[in-house]
Amino acid sequence: MSDVVTFGEGMIRLAPPSNRRLEQTTTLEMTVGGAELNVASGVSRLGLTSSWVSSLPANPLGRRVRNRAREFGVDTSHVVWDEGGRMGIFFVEYGSSPRASSVLYDRAASSFCELRGATFDWPAIFAGARAYHTTGITTALGEPTAEQVAASLAAARGAGLVTSYDLNYRKKLWSPDKSRAIQEPLMALVDVLITTEEDAEVVFGISGTDYREVARKLADRFGFKVVTITIRGDLSVLHNTWTAIAYADGAIVDDRVYDLELVDRVGGGDAYAAGFLYGLLTGDVSRGVRYGNAFSALKQASWDDFNFTTLAEVEAQLGGAGSRIVR
Amino acid sequence: MSDVVTFGEGMIRLAPPSNRRLEQTTTLEMTVGGAELNVASGVSRLGLTSSWVSSLPANPLGRRVRNRAREFGVDTSHVVWDEGGRMGIFFVEYGSSPRASSVLYDRAASSFCELRGATFDWPAIFAGARAYHTTGITTALGEPTAEQVAASLAAARGAGLVTSYDLNYRKKLWSPDKSRAIQEPLMALVDVLITTEEDAEVVFGISGTDYREVARKLADRFGFKVVTITIRGDLSVLHNTWTAIAYADGAIVDDRVYDLELVDRVGGGDAYAAGFLYGLLTGDVSRGVRYGNAFSALKQASWDDFNFTTLAEVEAQLGGAGSRIVR
Amino acid sequence: MSDVVTFGEGMIRLAPPSNRRLEQTTTLEMTVGGAELNVASGVSRLGLTSSWVSSLPANPLGRRVRNRAREFGVDTSHVVWDEGGRMGIFFVEYGSSPRASSVLYDRAASSFCELRGATFDWPAIFAGARAYHTTGITTALGEPTAEQVAASLAAARGAGLVTSYDLNYRKKLWSPDKSRAIQEPLMALVDVLITTEEDAEVVFGISGTDYREVARKLADRFGFKVVTITIRGDLSVLHNTWTAIAYADGAIVDDRVYDLELVDRVGGGDAYAAGFLYGLLTGDVSRGVRYGNAFSALKQASWDDFNFTTLAEVEAQLGGAGSRIVR
Amino acid sequence: MSDVVTFGEGMIRLAPPSNRRLEQTTTLEMTVGGAELNVASGVSRLGLTSSWVSSLPANPLGRRVRNRAREFGVDTSHVVWDEGGRMGIFFVEYGSSPRASSVLYDRAASSFCELRGATFDWPAIFAGARAYHTTGITTALGEPTAEQVAASLAAARGAGLVTSYDLNYRKKLWSPDKSRAIQEPLMALVDVLITTEEDAEVVFGISGTDYREVARKLADRFGFKVVTITIRGDLSVLHNTWTAIAYADGAIVDDRVYDLELVDRVGGGDAYAAGFLYGLLTGDVSRGVRYGNAFSALKQASWDDFNFTTLAEVEAQLGGAGSRIVR
Amino acid sequence: MSDVVTFGEGMIRLAPPSNRRLEQTTTLEMTVGGAELNVASGVSRLGLTSSWVSSLPANPLGRRVRNRAREFGVDTSHVVWDEGGRMGIFFVEYGSSPRASSVLYDRAASSFCELRGATFDWPAIFAGARAYHTTGITTALGEPTAEQVAASLAAARGAGLVTSYDLNYRKKLWSPDKSRAIQEPLMALVDVLITTEEDAEVVFGISGTDYREVARKLADRFGFKVVTITIRGDLSVLHNTWTAIAYADGAIVDDRVYDLELVDRVGGGDAYAAGFLYGLLTGDVSRGVRYGNAFSALKQASWDDFNFTTLAEVEAQLGGAGSRIVR
Amino acid sequence: MSDVVTFGEGMIRLAPPSNRRLEQTTTLEMTVGGAELNVASGVSRLGLTSSWVSSLPANPLGRRVRNRAREFGVDTSHVVWDEGGRMGIFFVEYGSSPRASSVLYDRAASSFCELRGATFDWPAIFAGARAYHTTGITTALGEPTAEQVAASLAAARGAGLVTSYDLNYRKKLWSPDKSRAIQEPLMALVDVLITTEEDAEVVFGISGTDYREVARKLADRFGFKVVTITIRGDLSVLHNTWTAIAYADGAIVDDRVYDLELVDRVGGGDAYAAGFLYGLLTGDVSRGVRYGNAFSALKQASWDDFNFTTLAEVEAQLGGAGSRIVR
């Protein structure tokens, strides 16, 4: 009975403190992340209810991921527990110019990738829900997860949910060709496509003179109700700009550009997706873009995959909050 | 027998490390702050003697604040101890664009706010002193402290001290109307008014075409010997500019503008006040502005309410110190 | 629809790392505690469902306490939010012989103590629940909370719940006389009394030749269905023993004595209460005592008010787990 | 050209600080361990040369393990680098009574377990060496590593090295039956067997009235030149005793019993093996037992798998060093 | 105008966190210590006034030591500042059985050891004071400091102060022979000798059947008014006992034996000296022994050279405080 | 048999975390640095072999420096051990505008400065090597080290090595006049001079209209085969630019300018020297400049004197790597 359901891998996230290199650090900060889990947590943070579907190993690391989801109010009753499995892990290194930030994934053979013995009753999971969200990462992880993506999108469509899909191409997980071959058939089941201009070109070979044209071409080719494209300007490793546009009903929606003094850009796209879904479900596409951008910009000025930004803070940004200290 | 006496609340200051949110952090860095205590510590740091008058709870947190004052050489012999009282606390969150920094105060029912059983022998406290400093925060905290502000200013004036008052308007503590009603009668007892342009308008309804005009109008209305206005430019959350001007004897004194890569802006105004008083007491208004600006700029590039900047470092800035590493 | 409902204050808990003194430390570890919240979290940890009823300030600290409860699966939908209120805080110092550990409370004027504008629909809250637990701390905090304790116990009794009450005498909150005067009338509404021998004597003036006699006298005087007494042996500050006995249906139940290399004894009694309620609701009084003791002993060998011990670990203790490393 | 060669997996070791639970901690301390790597590092620490043979992923975690080995002077020129592989990880939780310490292994699919594309030229590796050491863990990890154990022992025997094998039974890696079936044939190639009484019974079904008899039976059955048995007394989780005996040439060698205030028992057995090999190669079996015990006892009073104890500290223990502070 | 004056070196104290080895740690905890400075801080902590005389380098480390002294209320106006000098440093490693704790000194060429250009006007320093304390460490550091010890003791005797001397033999600083040759002449100027049985034998060749006889022999030989001997029982590295006795006016004073779960024994003797002087100056020798023992026992259960124990805590120990948590 | 040999002091490096002042911090981060050791470690990091020649005290701090060198694969077999000596230490404070970063050296009386009893068999050390590097710091430390610089340069020239010398003027170690007097005679033995424009003027009085002219004049005056000048632009304390040029065979080589978001500029020049020597020995002067600049720029965006940058990362920069996150 959650408003939004998401499906994907939850992972332990380990990062050196400050700006230490992974090869150098003697301590790691431990938290939790994962694209679809981030979206579920963000949607809940903003005030809707959400449920996250996944598989976790039955050990302290698996419980920790479950706990973190619950901390944000995410329903975890559909998580499957895997005896003896392993937890996926990723390591984040924070850079500064000219050293870019980087992520090292260690998710091979994880409980989620293998989905051993996991069955998901999608119709039951979707009962009463309004939207479903997953990403190209889940599709890329292997056959077991790709099958569930197909089954879940079909079930969500059947149950009348808004289906949302973040293309999220990861070149270490699959080739552009394989990515296109597997994802193209799924696109007919997707209402809202979230992507970057680069991913649209790599995966579907779609490019254009500008973001607007790419969005329109995507919508035209696949029949998406909404295409929303996030746009990051890398002025330097620590100084970025951020905005997003959307194309829906034949028109473009755009928004202000945020200037970011980056703390942690990992999870920025997921925060946008969460804010966009929140705005869409509580208003319209334009509200989605504006809430998505503000929620993402504030997230990128904060540490962690999860976003501790409040709805009031988002709305203060939309109302023109400045840089002065708040007392 | 201190050169400068200040009166106000000392507080425990708790801040998440790095740029963590308060809702997110599992550790807090604990230090000590408070507008008038910051000024006393800064004056002592620069080489004059100072005394801080206050009330503290008789528990480890109260002793800690006392210890910190002593660490900076501040005389604490006039502090009143309150059995069973509570220590005021404030929490600082460091932001980065577009997320502003913020402060959460938890000073309700503190030993200082209530001043239970505290009596201050102001004439004895001021014996041998040259200047007295307090702020609008102390006046705002409630009747007990407002009464002492009035009594202390009168006593200081009577004892021939230079009286200094930082307007420091805090909207969570009182309304503009109440602030004006209570403070206007006190202004006749003040020699040096320290303020921002914004506070001057909010509290006294005084505005002008520029800082200079505001300063002159304040001096004209209340008869201050000196009005000094601090001027912060919020280029971004982490990049500010800083300067101050003063109006005295019918003339404006100004100074270079400092470019700040902010570490911790909390306490920046107090550092200016301390540097200004130091400069004023060891020279003149112009020296006050220059020492105040340098002391404040260096403080804002350092962590903590208290300012570990040395007089030699201040003077190196005044002499044109650059950005190169000092070996 | 939770199995167990609890009512009481949640607090931010701040503790110096290692064995630093509060007056000495420059960092604090921040977590969450509170007697009844600890019990709710423990019951949920062991596998039943639980709900915690309270009032929290609408600020980051209040949200943090709410998050922590949710992390443990505790239902927080009955928490009342207080705009502008303050969060109760307590500070823990860990000792070693001959320096005892200590706790400094800073809960004056907290949102929970004042319960401003809070109303609790007890019959609705108790719908479907099996047991209700609160403590003498909540009764001691002031009239607003004492009134709710009385109302809630009556409602729980009316709804057919098992009512559980931990005497938990705190001498800084009230005198023995006041404690007796206010609590004696409540005892008629209590099914399960949890106490120490010392508290039974201080509050009710009941003593005896041994624990067994005290338990029997308490049951006889007030008509409790169960009296359970926890027994701590303070061999040194860091080396304790722990056990508990119960009296029910005219008979005494006892259990093995645990040898504790203490990490953190704060919350040990609450862990016992949680384990006891779990055992009672899933079995009988004897199971309650055994699960309570094991859950408490393992908690005291771990840090934090909340208890990360799993049911499997409790049952391994009951099955005779030793001191060897588990690989 | 190292004195001692070892073969086995190196792992990243992650441990919560202080006594936090893994499910609870927000930071992890990162270091390096692995039975045979520990032995190589210990032998080098005491003054002989050593070489560690293994496979590591070509990423920052793999380089970190290599760096740590080099930090202790261990030759890593025979390490094979695996592009795209993953690093084995283990997590250590430190307990206190009644909560035992525990280790969670996450080594599935690691570069070492799979040994993809790794070939080892054992005769070249052993050129000039005096002893070779590996353990039952390496044999247990899978067919690729078990094959290398067999090949390496044969090559070492052929090259005239002393062969040393620590039985190190791990029940999560294999069953007693499988363990016996695979290891029994290897025993003919082993000169020095290191074991505990428990492992001797689990793996080979050999028990006796005391340690001495077990050692003699092992030597008789398999023809070992030396059998050395380590003996830990678990008085509590944090208070242990430690000693070891050896059987060689028909006689028993024993040593004093060490009283341990445990800091970190993980790696204690490996420290014994390193000290034993050092003592054996620079003296005889009796020297091996005494150096092994002292090196292990001092390691267990220190943190980390690797042992920062110096030879001088070992010899001070052998000379009767007491508990007084050393200035 | 302080009650107690002390003279000696202040040092930066660096210690690995937890129980890490110095060769192993990547962080150090930085604080301040030094025998005579510890005594001055302890005396002030208990409620008398104190002054510490020394020489410090004019750099951030020197200022830090000065700040720390001031934090405890110690008068530092007689400290001499040395341009270009270096700060003495010592490193502490905390052990556990069988690994003893250890201290590594790095004080060569420090500002205090060399006392370059430092002159001390002892009569002025002692004006109004009641007692003077220094130790054999200061005498051992070299000719410049030994000369000041002689001069200061003579001046203190001349000014009618109680002179106190802690023998504190350090074998790395000088030989027994040299120690005796230089210190014997000073003893005629000493009223209160503080020592251990071991040091009395090493330095003066005085031994006896028990502590009592040693104290009496010392008093007889040198004419001390009081001899007080501290007695530590090293049950293990982390478990000690502590007491002290005194001999004065022909009689022995003794006290209870404290059982210590050691946190940090460094500075334990200095805490005794501070408590003893406090007790002596506010009462008599017996009070000195009892306050000294309690102040020292509580210090050794706390971290740091300086002692954050309060007078109230000392008196609670004297009144029989137990191991229970203080709420 | 290392490719590159360096000679100089290794030091313990202590730095406050984040941006704390040294006078303020309660913890220090401990690592290892020293100009010539940094170069040896960098050369090894990039793939050549290196050896570092020095003297270290035989204590845990000395071993730690040795360990760190070994961790990077640097050969330490020519290090001389000094019983009873002291380790040089330096303290780093990280600034932000307008507060510059600073370094406080504490190397007086260190084992390396005094070189007590140290003899170096330079011909043996240089056997098989291709290049030798030292710096003006080593020459400045005193007569013992200056003599070894002269002897080693002569021996290196005699053995046919490329000799490299970084002028590295330190005004706290000697005057310009003394610096010139001692270093001028050495220049005839140097093939590669590394310097800044400022140092060239201070030491040799050589200036020019631009970097190119300075380089050419230096080469002309002293007959260097290569002069390479590093060029830092201090836009602010945290924002710098970096590049270097070289003059060789009558021609200038230059390279792109790097934009730096500084993490730690200490060691930036040494990283350039290491990268330059690597490029020179594996290619030519132009390759030296490009590898030096990239290796230095990436180092300055990382913490620590040692550079964890990999050869692959350097080559990615040379290939145009951008600011996007690497996944």
CATH topology of chain A: UDP-N-acetylmuramoyl-L-alanine:D-glutamate ligase
Helix content of chain A: 25-40%
| CATH architecture descriptor text of chain A | 3-Layer(aba) Sandwich
Shape of chain A: globular
Alpha-carbon distance between the two ends of chain A? 39 Å
Mean pLDDT rating of chain A: 97
Oligomer: homohexamer
Give me the strand/helix succession of chain A.
Answer: EEEHEEHEEEHHEHHEHEHHEEEEHHH
Structural class of chain A: alpha/beta
The beta-strand count of chain A equals 15
Task: Tell me the β content of chain A.
Answer: 15-25%
Segments of chain A where pLDDT lies below 50 for 5+ residues?
Answer: none
Overall number of structural domains of chain A: 1
Concise description?
6 copies of one chain form a homohexamer. Chain A is an alpha/beta fold and 327 residues long.
Keywords:
327 residues, alpha/beta, UDP-N-acetylmuramoyl-L-alanine:D-glutamate ligase, 9-stranded mixed β-sheet, globular
